[in-house]
């Protein structure tokens, strides 16, 4: 069990949410407290929504119809974000194959672990009316569970207003706005075309937030130079939260036998979106940047951050939470491991919490943000640390420096082992 000093664990390091558990722990009581502590509490409250745990089905195939969303609730996911819907599903035409995987061994080896996943899938191709009926049915069967609709429309205010009105009528708990779909949709000035253009984003976010009566999370594209810029715009325009990241522009590879790229559709492809384990470090960096920006500019407890990218273990989720995330979304992980993954995620996150004697998510949310600084500051810290070590190692410069009080310490300062 790693030992934490009271000063490391007692303050809330991401103080934009008031702690539900502000009890002070003392190191001396750790073992006693750990033995008698109740189960770590995974529940989270975010933008007024109560979730049994922070694990949320990310928008995509795992939230594509009634059957699979019901399954997600049954297995215990904290919330479900449905596959993105728009007014006119008949404009959405998918191709097959539309996925390609990267394995840890040489590209294409059937044995290597899957670490990267490219998709060229569009938003939902199911009629809006059908999806709305299913949202309504799910909210009827699971009134206490959190169902979030992911929505996207063209650059057209009345269309956005109609979509929001019709989706909200079903009783969904929140909206995630897909400002990040990387393929197909930008050709219609949708998704990432809006998310990459801060002026457009501000305008569309303004329309959305003027109309919506439930919390709004703006989902960010990572395919920008500085993700804090659109995140700031979305929050300033009235969104309650930010979700990050959607997929990263990618070409999975070229088949060296056929010379055609993957995923190969009639001999051709188009760049797609990259997800899975390989994007996790990139997502961590972007979530950290957004969290730091939110901490300094939107630090009044009203705003939330939903982290996404390459989560397959409770440890992956703990990392996002340590960087300030309120919730953690999983998409590709569910496509590879199934809906039961949530049980493993919860157990592993609880193990992590037990190890550090954290009793709630708020106990450690944002803790590790404080360890990010500039390179210049790293150089300064290292120089200081080296000087300190040298001073300690040096011992006494002269025999005249021995003192009576410090004699033992002075002796130790000159011992090498
Ligand atoms: C096949 C597939 C389809 C997706 N469809 C959507 C979508 O309709 N709307 C959306 O906002 N994100 C969509 N995403 C993006 C995911 O929600 C998520 O942001 C991304 O895949 C990174 O998380 P992951 O590594 O857990 O998959 C899709 C991802 C995949 C792999």
From TrEMBL:
Pathway: Amino-acid biosynthesis; beta-alanine biosynthesis. Its EC number is 1.3.1.2. GO terms for molecular function: dihydropyrimidine dehydrogenase (NADP+) activity; NADP binding; uracil binding. One of its GO terms (biological process) is uracil catabolic process. Keywords: Oxidoreductase. It comes from the Eukaryota. It holds the Pfam family DHO_dh. One of its GO terms (cellular component) is cytoplasm. Residues 42-353 form the Dihydroorotate dehydrogenase catalytic domain. This is dihydropyrimidine dehydrogenase (NADP(+)). It comes from Aristolochia fimbriata (White veined hardy Dutchman's pipe vine).
